[in-house]
Every structure is written in C-alpha cells, then in structure tokens.
Amino acid sequence: MREKYEQVDIVYAESLNRLITQGYFSNLEDFSSVLFVSSQPFYEYYYDKFSKLFSSSLEFQWYICPNNIKARGIDTFQSILEYMEEMTTPENTLIIGAGGAELFHLCGALKKSSPYLSAFYYLPSTLSGFIDSLFGEVWLNNSKAIPSMKQKLLPDRVVYDTMLMELETREVWRESFFKLIHLAVTQNAELLKKIYQVSLSENYENFSPFIASIIQVIKKENQFSSSFGKSFTKAFYRLEEAHYLNISQKEYIGFLLHLLWTLERSEVQFDYNKFYFWFESIVGIELKLPEQMLITDLTESLLIELTRYQKILCLKEIGQVDMVNIPDQEELFKVIEMYRRIK
Question: What are the residues facing 147 on neighbouring strands?
Fold first, then answer.
C-alpha cells in the first residue's frame, strides 16, 4: 500500500524483501553515497540483500548501533558524526535508518544536523518507530536518558514491513502498544475503541489492522501531542525513589498521571479505572507508585518540572487536546492521591 503525507512517501503492508527485488530502491544510485544505520538483527537479515543493490562506483557504509534507549543518546549521535568524519562522508549522502523508534530519532537528528546528508529513508521494525516518524519530531536524550533535544523533521520515505516486528522483543512490542494508545487517547477516540475491541481477540498482538487508521489520524488530526505525559515522566528522574521503577514504568505512569489530571481538570467522562487495569493487563507490568515514594515529594518534583512551562497539554475530551495553565500544588497532590488509591 502507498500513501503520501506531506513530503513523506509511505509504503506499508508490503514485504521489504519483495520491494528490494522489484527495484523500489533503484534510486540509490542518485546519491553520492549511502549510510546505513541499523540494529544488529536488521544488519544480519538484510546486509547481503541491500549490498547487491550498490554498483562498484557507489560508496556505502553500514553503522550498527544498539536498538535500545542508548541509540537516541547524545553519545551515540556524536559517535556517528565522528564516524562520518573518519569515513569522509561526501555531500549528497542518503542516510537509511533501520530499526526501532530510537533509530528514527537518531537518524533524524543526524539528517537535521549534518551538511553531508541530503535525504533520509526510514525502515521501522516497530509500530512505535512508524508512528514517531510521521509526527515530525525528533528527540535526543541526555546522559540520564531524559528527552532533552527536540528538532522538527519528517523523513523522505518510510517503508514499514510489519514482519520486521519478528526481529524485536516483547518489551519492544509493549512500547509500540503504548505508542498506539498514546496516539488514540490524545487524537482519536474511535481508534481507542477499535484497539480495545481488537484486544479482546486472540490476534491482538498484530498491529497490521491499525496502520491505515494511524496514517489517516495523523493526516487529519495531527495536533503535535507527542509531548503529552513527558513532563510528568521527567519528574520521576528528580526523585531517589524512582530507581524502584524501570524506564517503561516511569513513562507509562507519567502518561497515566497526566491523563488522570486532565480528566479531572476538564471533567471528561471516562472510566479511568477500567482503562488503567486494561492497559496494565496488556503491557504486563505493574503500574503502581512505589510505597517508598512520598506523595509530597512527587508533588514537589512535578511542580518543579511543570513550572518550566506556561501552559501544558490537556484533553478537552478523549481524542482532542488543548493548551491550558499548569496545575497548582493542590491539584497535583490530589491527583497523585487518587492514583495511589486505585486498587
């Protein structure tokens, strides 16, 4: 299937192997060189297939990096810039990123920053990578794995073969599911209903039924709501007791706290408890706040983080966001207390 979103050529529900053999990538010869940045599993499966596309006159390099949170860190970003200098990467180089969402953010930041890169193709192996690539935002993390550098960028091509998900772990599937939920809650209530209905079937782990809907939602509704929950998540990193939570738990609980606050602020009718337990059962990890984490400490940390902004995202209703004034200390304390009482 083929779609166009702004300047992005999107291909999905087609085999990457077939696209390679049928000449979809025949335009690689239009570039001075090609720089692949991929995960190890992608390299092992596709190096031989892609290397056959290159003539003897076309330079290409292949950089393998971890397909995890470290890939979108400043250190990895700088390492690849140094690698490009060592390899004397020429102008008019195409960068192809292949792997999870981290690879999209890393390669997007490289394309945005390097004068030698003229185009960016992205081959997501995860749904989270596919969604992120259409949002037009690239984030790099600082040394504490906190998103700290944001740039605007859309890739030139996105080729999503859902079979690549077989290269990924259960943890990566969970992150893709969260990204899908995040998109539905903030941008399209009908999509959320569809996800819930599909989750009741045995085939709920297959994301293919959602791809066309995702593209249409982003085309029609894109409200740049990817930051929903981020500030609440970042507040955990200020607390010593946060070490009781892994990175995913911080992200999911941050989103759930932001959602609970926004439902209270806007008085939106939504069965939050049912949603909470359903989401927790699907992702398969506990989403309670650690007993050692005091409500007063978390409230203070949230207030410190949120006062960096004049306004933050808030749901007008499920699927629609607006910007509103930040919550005060009393609001935050009440919301955390409510979250703690969920049993």
Answer: 141
Q: What is residue 236's three-state secondary structure?
A: helix
Q: Where are the alpha helices (DSSP H) in 136-246?
A: 170-187, 189-199, 211-221, 230-236
- What does the alpha-carbon distance between residue 326 and residue 335 come to, in Å, rounded to a whole number? 13
Residues 154-172, mean pLDDT to the nearest whole number: 89
pTM for this entry: 0.93
Per 3-state DSSP, what percentage of the chain is helix, strand, and coil (rounded to 5)? 50, 20, 30
Domain count, the chain: 2
Same domain, 161 and 261: no
Asked if 269 and 124 sit in the same domain, the reply is: no
Q: DSSP 3-state assignment of 141?
A: strand
Give the model confidence (pLDDT) of 290-333 as tens digits: 999 999 999 999 999 999 999 999 999 999 999 999 999 999 99
Give me the domain span that covers residue 275.
227-341
Does residue 36 carry a pLDDT above 80?
yes
User: Coil, helix or strand for 148?
Assistant: strand
Q: How does DSSP classify residue 288? A: P
146 and 238 housed in the same domain: no
Q: How many CB atoms lie within 10 A of CB 60?
A: 17
Q: What is the chain's length?
A: 343
Q: Average pLDDT, stretch 90-113? A: 96
158 and 255 together in one domain: no
Based on the fold, state whether residues 122 and 234 are members of the same structural domain: no
In a domain, 208, yes or no: no
